[in-house]
Design brief:
Blueprint: H1 18-23, H2 34-40, H3 42-48, H4 51-57, H5 60-67, H6 70-88, H7 92-96, E1 105-108, H8 124-139, E2 143-148, E3 156-159, E4 165-168, E5 180-181, E6 191-196, E7 199-210, E8 213-219, H9 227-230, H10 241-261, E9 268-272, H11 277-291, H12 295-303, E10 306-309, E11 320-322, H13 323-337, H14 341-349, E12 354-356, H15 357-364, E13 367-370, H16 373-382, E14 398-399
Parallel strand pairs: 1-2, 1-9, 2-8, 9-10, 10-13, 13-14
Antiparallel strand pairs: 3-4, 5-7, 6-7, 7-8, 11-12
GO molecular function: 1,4-alpha-oligoglucan phosphorylase activity; pyridoxal phosphate binding
InterPro entries: Agluc_phsphrylas, Glycogen/Maltodextrin_Phosph, Glycogen_phosphorylase_DUF3417
Pfam families: DUF3417 (PF11897)
C-alpha cells in the first residue's frame, strides 16, 4: 500500500542525498550535519533537533536558495561523502568476527532512547537501549532492534504554581518522526497480525535507521482495528495490567512474526527486560514447526542462543499477570500454535497462579545477566527461587556493567 502521506518530498537534484542523511539517526551523535539543518530552518532545528522534521518543513524557496549556495553545497557534499564512507568502511566486526553472526542478532526492548527526535523512551532502560544500538552500529555488529511506535510515548512533566506535577501527552505524528513505513519485497507496507480474544489485531511496521542498525517498530493504530485496539500502542508503561499484557503480546509475538515475515532468522535473540519474553516463545514455535519437533525440544534448542538482560532490583518489579487475564488474552494465540497456558506457566514459574514474564524469559534463555557487579548479586538473590535449593551465590547470573555510548 503506497500512501501519499509518506511520499518523499521533492528536493533539488544538487542536494537529493539529504533525504538519506536525515533518515539516518547517526546525525544525532555525529554532529557534522548540524549546521546544514540549522541553515534549512534554524527555529525548528533549535526547538526539536529533528533533522527529518526540518527537511520536511523547509520551504521550497529556501531549498532552492541553498541549492544555489556554493558554501552550503560544499558542506553538504562533505557530509554526504562522510555518511557514505561510514556505511562502506570496514568495521571491528567485519575484521574480527568474520561470518560468525551471518544472520544477525535480534534485539527486543520496550523503549528506545536513540534521540529526542524519536520520543519512545522514559528513562534509563531506553537510553541504554539507544546507546547499545549506537555502539553496535559503530562496531558493525549486525543488530536488528524491535520495539513499539507509541502514539504518545511517555508523559511529559511540568509543575503548576502550587508545585504539583502536571502530565502532558503530546502526540507523535509518524510523518514527522525520522521513520518510514517498512516495505516488504513487493513494496507494500509490511503488516503482521496477532490473535486476540474474538478478533485479530493488525500491526503496521515502521523502520528507523540507526547508523548500520535497523530499528523496526510496530504500532496498532491501524484504521481497520477496533478503537480500543488502536490505542494499544498509545503510551509507554501504562498502569493498566490488561494494556501492559496487550503491549507485550504485540512486541513479543508481533515482533518475532515480523522478522519471520521479512525472512530474517537471527542467530541470536537478546531481550532487554522480561517485557519481550513472548518473542522467545514465538521463536521456539517457529523452530518447532521448521524442524517438526516437540515444543520442549524447540525450547531447549533455541534457549542456547537466547540472552536475557534484567535491570530489576526487586522481585516486586517483575511483570506478573493473573492467570485469568493471561488465559483470556493468550488462549487464541496458544491454540493457534498448539500449546497450552499450563506449558507456558510451567516454563515461567513452575505453574504458580501468576504469569511471571521475567520467569518466562529466564526459562527460555540460556544465559542471563544483570547490569553491574553489585546488580549481579541482587539478580542471583531475586532469581534464586527458580533454582530450587541452589545457594544464591551459585545462581548462574552474569553481569555486564551499563555503559554510555561515546562517538
Amino acid at each position: 500500500m503506497t500512501l501519499a502521506a509518506y511520499t518523499m518530498r521533492a528536493l533539488p537534484a544538487q542536494m537529493s542525498g539529504l533525504m538519506a542523511i536525515a533518515l539516518d539517526l547517526q546525525w544525532s551523535w555525529h554532529h557534522g550535519c548540524d549546521e546544514l539543518w540549522r541553515q534549512l530552518d534554524e527555529e525548528i532545528w533549535e526547538a526539536t533537533h529533528n533533522a527529518w522534521l526540518v527537511l520536511n518543513s523547509a520551504s521550497a524557496e529556501r531549498l532552492q536558495q541553498l541549492a544555489e549556495d556554493p558554501e552550503f553545497l560544499a558542506q553538504y557534499q562533505q557530509q554526504l561523502n562522510r555518511h557514505e564512507a561510514f556505511n562502506q568502511c570496514p568495521t571491528w566486526y567485519s575484521e574480527n568476527c568474520g561470518n560468525q553472526l551471518a544472520t544477525g542478532v535480534a534485539w527486543f526492548c520496550m523503549e528506545y532512547g536513540v534521540s529526542e527526535s524519536l520520543p519512545l523512551y522514559s528513562g534509563g532502560l531506553g537510553v541504554l537501549a539507544g546507546d547499545f544500538l549506537k555502539a553496535s552500529s559503530d562496531l558493525g555488529v549486525p543488530v536488528t532492534a524491535v520495539g513499539l511506535l507509541y502514539q504518545q510515548g511517555y508523559f511529559r512533566q511540568a509543575l503548576n504554581a502550587e508545585g504539583e506535577q502536571l502530565e502532558f501527552h503530546p502526540y507523535n505524528d509518524p510523518t514527522m518522526l525520522p521513520v518510514t513505513p517498512l516495505r516488504d519485497s513487493n513494496g507494500e507496507w509490511a503488516r503482521v497480525n496477532v490473535p486476540f480474544p474474538g478478533r485479530t489485531v493488525r500491526l503496521r511496521a515502521w523502520k528507523g535507521q540507526v547508523g548500520r542498525c535497523e530499528l523496526l517498530l510496530l504500532d496498532s493504530n491501524d484504521p481497520r482495528n477496533e478503537p480500543g485496539d488502536r490505542g494499544i500502542t498509545s503510551e509507554l508503561y501504562s498502569g493498566d495490567p490488561e494494556k501492559r499484557l496487550q503491549q507485550e503480546m504485540v512486541l513479543g509475538i508481533g515482533g518475532w512474526r515480523l522478522l519471520a515475515q521479512l525472512g530474517r532468522q537471527p542467530a541470536l535473540c537478546h531481550i532487554n527486560e522480561g517485557h519481550s519474553a513472548l518473542a522467545l516463545v514465538e521463536r521456539a514455535v517457529h523452530w518447532q514447526q521448521q524442524n517438526e519437533t516437540s515444543f520442549e525440544v524447540a525450547r531447549l534448542a533455541t534457549r542456547a542462543t537466547n540472552l536475557f538482560t534484567t535491570h530489576t532490583s526487586v522481585a516486586a518489579g517483575f511483570d506478573r499477570f493473573p492467570t485469568k487475564l493471561a488465559r483470556l488474552y493468550l488462549e487464541p494465540w496458544l491454540q493457534e500454535i498448539g500449546q497450552s497456558l499450563e506449558t507456558i506457566l510451567t516454563v515461567a514459574n513452575g505453574g504458580s497462579s501468576d504469569l511471571n514474564m521475567s520467569g518466562l524469559a529466564l526459562g527460555m534463555s540460556g544465559r542471563f545477566n544483570g547490569v553491574s557487579q553489585i546488580h549481579k548479586q541482587v539478580t542471583q538473590s531475586i532469581f534464586q527461587p527458580w533454582f530450587g535449593r541452589w545457594p544464591a551465590a551459585d545462581v548462574p547470573a552474569e553481569y555486564v556493567t551499563n555503559g554510555v555510548h561515546t562517538p
